[in-house]
């Protein structure tokens, strides 16, 4: 059997690694002040096919239904009604930056009672409030739920989540967020992944594009932009030019593994120091096969259950002691492990052990 190191060398001869290219600044940063706002509202869904809230268990549904009917001029005071086609819901949405009155946004509708499904339901006019308590949009429309329910007399099956759904363009903006972009004299660019090298490259790229010092790095996550020095017609023109400047980002060496699916994702800069690896598995199998012993016919005695257990230990073939040289990249190690037929979950255990030994030089994230 070929050694672990020989397998790595063999795979290296047939694998080429491509380095990453430049990325637009708009994909690396957030412009300070140019942001969305979360909205939430409490409403009522009607038109359900008997899958709504049980009003005995959800009295708040009856309250909101009574309030809506009273606003529509229907007097229901003292009336007893128990419909099965309504459900109380929470409605959420995100108000995008620079949204203007009359524009439409998507909303998400989620049941908060004991409704079985929102399929086919219609959301009644629901005001959406921001954190300041003001109404910024009003939602209404037919719900598109992402699930299905089928049931019979003895069993039922549910696929997806039928108690939540969306309404595309289901809310209309009624109030605008006050933000005067044109009055700004400086703006901060916030990096999504803080890194001193990337921030310095963004500063250099912007200053090189404008031919003068208009950007200054404040820290690893912030670059400040001097708007007047850009000499553009407006702030919007300056940002439109800046966001398309290409920059080569620098990333931290990082390894992310998902134990449930056996997925391993790694950066190209991950390195491993000199380390030796040995791996093998033991499988323990225990099987119970009890035997019932009965007395002879017409004789005194009792039926006795005699236990019978079959236990065995099996050792599966693994990796013998192999040495990984200094400076080897993790992608090379993974390629070598794949060439030896190591299972993904065993591969994750090997990476954990290498990290615990201090030989894996990267941030190790396990999910």
Q: What is the quaternary state of this protein? A: single chain
| Shape estimate | flat
Write out the strand line-up for the largest beta sheet, numbering strands in chain order: 3-4-5-9-7-6
**What is the helix tally?**
7
What is the distance, rounded to the nearest whole angstrom, between the alpha carbons of the first and last residues?
Answer: 34 Å
Strand content: 35-45%
Largest sheet geometry? 6 strands, antiparallel, barrel
Q: Uncertain runs with pLDDT below 50, 5 residues or more?
A: 1-19
Find the structural class using helix and strand composition: alpha+beta
Helix percentage:
10-25%
In sequence order, what are the helices and strands, one letter per element? Answer: HEEEHEEEEEEEHEEHHEEEEEEEEEHHEE
What's the gyration radius in Å?
32 Å
The overall pLDDT average reads: 78
**Count of extended strands:** 23
General description of the model:
This protein has 367 residues and is of the alpha+beta class. The chain has helices at 4-12, 59-71, 196-210, 227-230, 235-242, 330-339, 344-356; strands at residues 23-24, 29-31, 37-46, 86-95, 104-111, 122-129, 135-142, 144-151, 156-173, 186-191, 215-219, 222-226, 246-247, 254-258, 263-266, 271-272, 275-288, 291-293, 304-306, 309-324, 328-329, 360-361, 363-366. It has a 6-stranded antiparallel β-barrel. It has a 4-stranded antiparallel sheet with strand order 2-10-12-11. A hairpin with a 4-residue loop joins β14 (254-258) and β15 (263-266). The chain is flat, with a radius of gyration of 32 Å. Assembles around the rod to form the L-ring and probably protects the motor/basal body from shearing forces during rotation. Residues 1-20 form the signal peptide.
